[in-house]
Amino acid sequence: MNDKSVYLDNAAATRLDERVLEAMSPYFFQTYAVATSEFAYSQGIEAKEALDGARGRLAGLLGVTPEEFIFTSGDTESSNIALKGVAKALGKSKGRHIITSRIEDFPVLQSAKALEKDGFSVTYLGVDGEGFVDLDQLEEAITGETILVSVQHSNQEIGTVQDIEAISKICRSRNTLFHCDATHSFRRLPIDLSRVPIDLLTVSAHTIHGPKGIGGLVVRKGTTLGKLMDGGFQEFDRRPGLENIPGAIGFARAAELVDEAENDRLRAMRDHAIWRILNEIPSVTLNGSPVDRLPQNVNVSFHFVEGESITLHLDMRGFAVSTGSACFSRSLQGSHVIYGIGGDHERAHGSIRLSLGRYNTLEEVDAAVTALAEVTRELRKISPLGK
């Protein structure tokens, strides 16, 4: 991207904060030993102390003990470990039923589908027009065979925030484990696991201006979880492999740099963008909840025009946005999330997501909305779908 480009796809990836890189740098060039060599030489001790320190800082931000936080390669691996690990541990002893929602991100949905092929039964809960899970429907779906409920904290596309406290209480009352994907809400919304009984929680660094390739999975004490990979005994014998110490350091630093002042600034830009789009551009629909929404998320469907065309024209004007989720952007399929909230083909294919980050300004958001208005007006003039 050139200096004039405006990046508004922070849900897919964020620019690394220079302060994060500064914190990581010594563990590439000075203390680069592996943590498991702590008993052999001093640099190994330093590496182990750094890893433990990063783990403790992240655990503290979530309200759990360091022993309950394991590092992974990112949210995809974390959610795979959660679903498949529970299935492996409890599939023969308790039951083979899992519950999730239709609008989950792909790591959860594809893990659930993989488990179906292995003989597990999966209930995919529907959601309402704003993307909320029906809590009564959830409670009715839980049976004596249910071993896990996996419902995200916030949606990756439309930004709707679920009532995870209520969901966790339902699961606890029914003696069912609860996994929550908090990839897009960690440090953007309050998550206190000392108060909310969530058994497994997925988090990642790439959405909060941290490094790519590092994430975490909270595994609360007493949670039964099978081991998916064989190898060493790293990460409390739950996830073997060479520890990514620079990544862990960067993750912890990135998490600490997010504060409420920044989140409030994102909310203000979000609300400003939504207001302008809904009031200045005709024939648009806001996707997701207008109230219980991620601070950084704007998702709108533009009628009578394809979202792919909008993104391409915006790119030519220097604005990077996405249509549907980042994973869907190369697919001819419409967004499963928009379909899930009752949207039709036109709404699914006409959705545009602007996701805001630390380095975006109100001036950039204004310029993007102005460009959106111009692009949609021009495209509708030649659209075969109507005006």
Provide an overview of this structure.
- This is Cysteine desulfurase.
- It catalyses: (sulfur carrier)-H + L-cysteine = (sulfur carrier)-SH + L-alanine.
- Keywords: Iron, Iron-sulfur, Metal-binding, Pyridoxal phosphate, Transferase.
- It is a single chain.
- With 387 residues, this protein is α/β, with parallel strands linked by helices.
- It folds into two domains: 6-15 and 259-382, Aspartate Aminotransferase, domain 1; 19-257, 3-Layer(aba) Sandwich (Aspartate Aminotransferase, domain 2).
- The protein contains 14 helices and twelve strands.
- A seven-stranded mixed sheet has the order 2-8-7-6-5-3-4, sandwiched between helices. A three-stranded antiparallel sheet has the order 9-10-12. A two-stranded parallel sheet has the order 1-11.
- Helix 5 (106-117) links the parallel strand 3 and strand 4.
- The longest helix has 21 residues, at 42-62.
- It starts with 5 loop residues before the first strand and ends in a 5-residue tail after the last helix.
The ordered string of helix (H) and strand (E) elements is: EHHHEHEHEHEHEEEHHHEEHEHHEH
Percent helix range: 40-55%
Distance between the termini: 33 Å
Level-1 CATH class name of the largest domain: Alpha Beta
- Label the structural class: alpha/beta
Estimate what percentage of residues fall within beta strands. Answer: 5-15%
CATH-defined fold name of the largest domain: Aspartate Aminotransferase, domain 2
Give the number of DSSP strands.
Answer: 12
Principal-axis shape equals globular
How many structural domains are formed by the residues? 2
